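Morning run. Coffee first, then this:
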Amino acid sequence: MRGTGLCNRGHMLGFGVAVLGSVLLAHAFDFFAHEYAHSFVAWGLGWKGDPLALHYGTAAIDNILLQQQIDENVDYAPIFASGRGWQAALIAAAGPLLANGGTALICHRLIGRVAAPIVLWGLVWVDAFSTFNVWSYAPLRVLTSHGDMALLARGLGISVWGLFPFVSAFAVWLVWRFACRALPVAQARLFPVDRQKIFSMTVLAVSLGFFSIPGFLGGYGPFCAVLGMVSVFMVLPVLLAAQQEPAGG
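And here it is:
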């Protein structure tokens, strides 16, 4: 019994280490895909001289692990001043909707086809962080005065309230596809039934919780704060409960 206990604790520790490493790697992949998408679209439209020229920040630990000081390095002011708001809108949308949304869709498709466990594990985390990064923008950070969604609305010549239902519908669809289609399939392939959906529930709790944080911080206004609370205390329990349904159901 003692040997079994030590073995179980070793498995739990290994699972925790694997989750931490996956979170850091998936976040980095997702983050750079997002920022480079902004940058490359701006470069392609003639608003940047070097698509690789992000603001990279310093070698501080928060920047190394979570890229906290890095941004796209795109100046939107001259784009709007030129009267080409649609180009500003395209640049703003490139990060969350094209890069992150597109990555999520690719991962969704691959999860149903990949058999190698380590590849499947990695695809799930990249999918989760891509999907919930979109979620962190729409619906959580649309109703605000700054950021990608505000720039997108301004570029399209509409209010953030007018933009809200369209981008939120896309995000909700991505979350449904991930949580109710791709994730249960991955859980069934990676772990036996008696593990009680621990992998899929961990992925949801970590990724949705992580990307709900910006709304809580107060920098995006009261609507975003309320939506952040709804995300954690209502949406997360619903998605966790959905993991008890049959895979693909």
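Residues 1-6 have pLDDT under 50 and may be disordered. Good start to the day.
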